[in-house]
Amino acid sequence: MNKETFIRPEIFSWAGIRIVEAAEGRSRLELQVEDHHRGGAGTNAINGGIVAYLFDGLLGMAVRSVWTEDVVRHATISLNIQYQRLVNVKETLVGCGHVTKAGGTTVFAVGEVYDDWGLVAASCTGIYRLFRRPVRSPDSQ
After folding, report:
1. Which of 24, 87, 94, 139 sees the fewest Cβ atoms within 10 Å?
2. Model-level pTM greater than 0.85?
C-alpha cells in the first residue's frame, strides 16, 4: 500500500512529521524538531504532548498499513506512554512502531522513540478500533 494513498498529509505536515515507512504492519516517522516542540520538564527536551501526538500517528500508521479492503477507518481506543528519559534530540526525532496483534475489529501496536544517542527515550502501547463496511446479504439488494 502506498503511504500517500491513505493519509491526509496535513495531519502530519503541520507538526513537521514525515512518514518514512508504513507497510506490512510497520511504521517509521520522523519529526523535524523546531523550538515550539521543546519545553519538556522545563528543559530543552521535546514536550511530552508532542511525543504523544507522534506516538498516535506512529502506531496509527502501522495499523493503517494492515487494513484490508473492507476497512474504512480506524480510531484510537487507548495509548499508554512510558517516558524513560527526557527526549533530547537536536534536529530529528525518530519513532518506529509495529502491529503486534490484529483481530476482527481491534488492533494492538507498540512503538518507541529514540534520542540522539539511539536510546529509547519513550515507549508506547496502543489499541485501535477498525471500522468495516457493512456486509450486505444477497437478500438486502
Report:
1. 139
2. yes
Distances, alpha carbon 44 to alpha carbons 22, 39, 41, 87, 122, in Å: 30, 5, 8, 9, 16
Interacting residues of 8 by C-beta distance below 8 A, sequence separation 6+: none
Characterize the bridge pairing of strands 17-23 and 26-32.
Answer: antiparallel
**CB burial string 59-68: b at 16+ within 10 A, e below:** bbbbbbbbbe
Q: Residue 98: what are its φ and ψ, rounded to 5°?
A: -155, 155
> DSSP code of 134?
P
For 68-87, write each residue's pLDDT tens digit: 999 999 999 999 999 999 99
Reply yes or no on domain 3-140 having CATH 3.10.129.10. yes
Lookup: cell for 102: 490484529
DSSP H or E segment with residue 118? none
Q: Where are the domains of the chain?
A: 3-140
* Dihedral pair phi/psi, residue 138, rounded to 5°: -60, -25
Which of 20, 19, 44, 23 shows the shortest CA–CA distance to 33?
44
Distance CA 113, CA 115 (A): 7
